[in-house]
Design brief:
mainly beta, about 55% strand, globular, about 0% helix
Length: about 230
């Protein structure tokens, strides 16, 4: 079964300095049909205005991934990490027993556009940790590049969950396919552009949920950037 999640049906919050679209229930947005998909708990598409951001706040027992599309995101946390996250970077913070952090757009002009992704960990109370890696556009061109996994295979960022995240860039005749093992879930999120996924023409913000399916097929992209999740059933 493949279920379409149109971009326009997501939750939306406009705080002036922050414009945010929620694929799953988050903050004041609650939709009982979209609370999580397997351990995938949050995909927030955030646009942060220049000189603004999220002040210091805390998290526990969550795998938090930041994927920047445009601009730069400044990160500081209670583990002593301070970094700038730019397009191509994948940042992962395992909150575990508890961590404080802040995220800012330090640019004097221009938005930061990024995806904030939360994945429920397989175990609670792990020691907080941080990881950041860069994946070149050429490595994602016309294919699905593994960027997050439980074991760090192929140079991916590691998380405490049996979940895999792939990223791909697609134009024209470029295609990719990803098998889904029996008993697992799939989720496709279009970050930008347009693309056809298993017969569905999708635009930025659209998504597909997969259950009891064996394959995800992607093609006919127009400046498309796509994230694909391979997930266990909780």
């Amino acid at each position: 079964m493949i279920t379409l999640r149109p971009a326009a049906e997501r939750g939306h919050a406009d705080h002036g300095w922050l414009d945010s679209w929620h694929s799953f229930s988050f903050a004041d947005y609650h939709d009982p049909d979209h609370v999580h998909w397997g351990p995938l708990r949050v995909i927030n598409e955030d646009r942060v205005e220049a000189g603004r951001g999220f002040g210091q706040h805390g998290h526990r027992d969550m795998e938090i991934i930041s994927y920047v599309l445009d601009g730069a995101l400044g990160h500081k946390d209670s583990m002593g990490n301070s970094s700038s996250i730019v397009p191509g970077d994948v940042q992962r913070m395992s909150a575990g027993t508890g961590v404080m952090h802040s995220e800012y757009n330090y640019s004097p002009a221009g938005q930061t556009h990024f995806l904030q992704i939360w994945i429920i960990p397989a175990q609670q109370g792990v020691t907080p940790s941080y990881q950041q890696k860069h994946f070149d556009a050429a490595d994602k061109r016309g294919r699905l590049r593994l960027i997050v996994s439980p074991d760090g295979r192929d140079g991916s960022v590691t998380i405490h969950q049996d979940a895999y995240l792939y990223a791909g860039l697609f134009d024209g005749a470029e295609t990719a396919r990803l098998p889904i093992a029996a008993g697992r879930l799939g989720y496709v999120h279009v970050a930008r552009g347009e693309v056809v996924v298993d017969g569905h023409r999708l635009a930025a913000g659209d998504a597909l949920r997969y259950q009891a399916e064996s394959l995800i097929s992607i093609g006919e992209g127009r400046d498309a950037e796509v994230l694909v999740f391979d997930l266990p059933v909780l």
